[in-house]
């Protein structure tokens, strides 16, 4: 891919949904509001962001139809991360790819870890790799050592959500966060700097997020870090906003060269944005 055009910038983590959609039977949260594509695109415009990534909300389960609808309506400005069953048909994966999906998400908060050694999972991961996709992990830092090795052994590229979800009481001293730092040597792990309020009190989001971001920068470099707004901040709307998310980002990463890399170069490559970097 050629270098991104001047001004390109990507928000790598947001969700769209509306009330009335079919919800997963097992879920941690039931939304009481809409988060529409039009709202999200307006926020990107208002904050000077050229592209975005929509992540399938956990409460919608494996029905990615609303996500796909939004991706198609955005005409290449957005990419998606889907949630799929391990036995999904290969044709269905190709349909998702055609719509703009670039990865699958394992949101394992409150759930058991999947048995990745089963034939169904191994087949799925092989197909994910063949598409050039990644596997996005949302799991507490303490559980990363229980799943990251199996994904690496399967040849996957891994994107870890929300600073790796260190325990609030431990922060960067969490052994799971230290384990995440060590995985930089694999060359196949990326980390999203996003949703600090899921790890720390709101008053500490700037300072604690900066401490974690600087440690991740030292280990991963900006070439394998990305930023996400986590809009619409589900379950945390009282603590966050889109302007706050951008202000935290700028507090964490104040070097303009580093910021450009993690806002543009890295996500444009990983999420397969091509030909529309302006």
From TrEMBL:
GO molecular function: 4-sulfomuconolactone hydrolase activity
Record Gene3D superfamilies: Metal-dependent hydrolases
SUPFAM superfamilies documented for this protein: Metallo-dependent hydrolases
Major enzyme class: hydrolase
Coiled-coil regions listed: none
Stretches assigned to the Amidohydrolase-related domain: 10-273
Highest taxon listed in the record's lineage: Bacteria
InterPro entries, sorted: Amidohydro-rel, Aro_Compnd_Degr_Hydrolases, Metal_Hydrolase
EC number: 3.1.1.92
Key words of the record: Hydrolase
The protein, known as: 4-sulfomuconolactone hydrolase
Protein's organism: Achromobacter veterisilvae
